[in-house]
UniProtKB/TrEMBL annotation:
Enzyme class at the top of the EC tree: ligase
Alphabetical GO biological process terms: tryptophanyl-tRNA aminoacylation
Name of the protein this chain belongs to: Tryptophan--tRNA ligase
Organism ancestry: Archaea, Thermoproteota, Thermoprotei, Desulfurococcales, Desulfurococcaceae
PANTHER family tied to this protein: TRYPTOPHAN--TRNA LIGASE, TRYPTOPHANYL-TRNA SYNTHETASE
Record-listed E.C. numbers: 6.1.1.2
UniProt keyword annotations, A-Z: Aminoacyl-tRNA synthetase, ATP-binding, Cytoplasm, Ligase, Nucleotide-binding, Protein biosynthesis
Family that this chain belongs to: Belongs to the class-I aminoacyl-tRNA synthetase family.
Pfam families from the UniProt entry: tRNA-synt_1b
InterPro entries assigned: aa-tRNA-synth_I_CS, aa-tRNA-synth_Ic, Rossmann-like_a/b/a_fold, Trp-tRNA-ligase
The keyword Protein biosynthesis is annotated on this UniProt entry: yes
Amino acid sequence: MVEMGAKLDPWGHYAIEDYRKLLEEFGISPIDKILGLLPHKHKYFERLVIFGHRDFDVWLEALKRGEKVAVLTGFMPSGRPHLGTAMVYEELKFLQSLGAHIKIAIADAEAYIVRREDRSEVIRRGVEFVAHSIAWGINPDNAEFYYQTAMDNEYYRLIQLFSRKITAAEMEAIYGDINPGKIMAALTQSADILHLQLDKYGGYKYIVVPVGADQDPHLRLTRDIADRFEQEFGLKRPSSIYHKLLRGLDGNKMSKSRPEYAIHLDDDPEMAEKKLANALTGGRATAEEQRRLGGEPWKCSIFELYVYHLIDDEKELKERYDECVNGKILCGQCKRIAAEKLRKLLIEHQKRFKEVITSGIVEKILKKPSF
């Protein structure tokens, strides 16, 4: 687990233990204070899966006034999309339903530089990430998709110019250990977030970035850059919303780089069920203790899957929670219930994914890099 005294690592794979402390330490505002501004509800907000924000209220007020608003996020194509990735797809789908324009970056430069991934594999996986997003429900008619290495001159110009007003000491204060590749990746992410504000890219002055809490260093850097270029380029601070990290089946952050502990969107349903069978739970050491003391669902990766993906109905979710804490269900039975729900989710999603791939729409809307 990551201790909150340490720096957040956007390239790491550890879970965050105490989100309340993270709010205090990094100055992130609690989301529950502004839930009344949402035009309609979503389970991620109601269940505080999305737990914090920076200036999301400003973005929501702009939306209410009828201003041009957009959402920008990116995906690192260093592996296959999993249920953690799908959390961002779900947030994008919801924000798109509010009327926002969606733009998704495929972070192929970052994957090559920081993760040292094979270039051709990164490009191939980028297509899959886009196809999965559409299969999850993002409408491509009101969305844009791009590779970081297949953009226009103005985008790259931002990366170059941003470097003038950031020092190495500031980068180290935000990220800890740095190297040229991480510096380039960080400045590229700032260009990803801010380029939509340029007239060439739509002139969207109100941008929100939905990310996991571990990605906050990129937002802090980008907000500082926006402040320093406000007079010169008219840039405004982006807003952001933060979701809790979906834990892998071993209790750490679900990561593409640790496939044995992740549920991937293209996993064979039977393989996914086997993974669930070995997942870390909040159960007691013995069945007798479980019945007598009850389980601890707040420690359980299976219950987390219920909260994030597998149960939409609040009443059903409460029933699962009560059964666990009152010792009325054992972990094996609970895993079997989750496995059936997961099987259904994967089968339905994979059917839609196949339809998207077959349609050829990704090739029409996603420009690949020339090399």
